Amino acid sequence: MTAQNSATLPRAIAVKSPVGRGTALASLGVLAFSLTFPATAWGLESFGPWSLVALRSVLAAVIAGSFLLARRVPLPAREHWAALAVVAGGVVVGFPLLTTLALTTSTTSHAAVVVGLLPLTTAALSALRTGARPSRAFWAAAVAGAAVVMGFTLAQSGGALSAGDAYLFGALLVCAAGYTEGGRLARTLPGWQVIGWALVLCLPLSLAGSALGLAYEPVHLGGHGLVGLVWVAAGSTFLGLYVWYRGMAEIGAPRASQLQLAQPLLTLVWSVAVLGERLTPAAPAAACAVLVCIAVTQRVK
Questions:
Q1: Which terminus of the chain, N or C, has fewer Cβ atoms within 10 Å?
Q2: pLDDT of residue 7
Q3: Three state DSSP letters for 234-291
Q4: Contact in structure between 38 and 183 (CB atoms under 8 Å)
Q5: How far apart are alpha carbons 126 and 121 in whole angstroms?
Q6: Separation CA 275–CA 291 (nearest Å)
C-alpha cells in the first residue's frame, strides 16, 4: 500500500462511518416506532385516548427529565426554544394524539400504511425548510414508495378511506414538521436532549391533560394496557426518538425519512403477531416494492 493510499484510507473510513452509524441509529428508531400502533391498541384497552396520550407524555418526560438532571445538562439556548416547541407540538403532542384518536375507529394495519406517507411528507418539508435539493432519482424513488403505500392502503380498505384518515393525514403534517425541526436541532444538540427538552416543555400540559383525562374517561387496568402505556412512553416516545434524531443528524432528514417506508410493513407484522389481525396476501409484494425504494433512496443523493 502506498503512502498516498494509507493516508486516504482513514479519511474514507471517517467519511463513510457516520453514514453507516446514522443509518443504523435511524433504523433502530424505525423499529421502535413500528411497535407504537400495536402498543397504542393495547393501551386503549385500559385508558381512553386522551388519558393515554397525556400519560405517555408524562412518563416519557419523567424519564427524559431524570436523564437531563443526572447529566446536569444546562437549559438550551434561547434561539433553540422555538424549534423545540415545534418538535413538542409535532411529535410529543400532535402525532400521538391524532393517531390515537384514529385508532379508536381504524385498525392498526390500516393506520400503519396511511402513515407510510410520512417519509415523503418529511422529505418535502425538509427540502422546503432547509433548502436541500435531493436528486430527481431520490424523489422518483420516494414518490414510488409512497404510491405503493397508498395503493396498499386503498386495497386494504376496499378503495375508500376510513373515517380516521382525517386524523392520520393531520398526524402526517405535524409529525413531519417535528421531524424536520428536530433533525435540524440535532445537529447542534445531542438527539436525546432534543426530545428530552421537548418532553419537559410539554410536562405542564401533559400533567393537566392526565388529570382531566383520568377524571372524564373510564379506566380498566389490565396487563395489556399497562404494557402498551409503558412501551409508547419509554420505547416509542423517548428511546425511539432519541436514536431517530441522532441518526437523522448524521444522514439528513430526507434520507433518514425514507427508512420509514419500512415502518408500516413492520407494523403489519406486529399487528399479526401481537394483535392477531389478519394479513392479506398483498403484504409480501408491497414489502418487496417498498424495500427496493428504500435501497434506491439510500444510494442516491
A1: N
A2: 45
A3: HHHHHHHHHHHHHHHHHHCHHHHHHHHHHHHHHHHHHHHHHHCCCCCCHHHHHHHHHH
A4: no
A5: 8
A6: 24
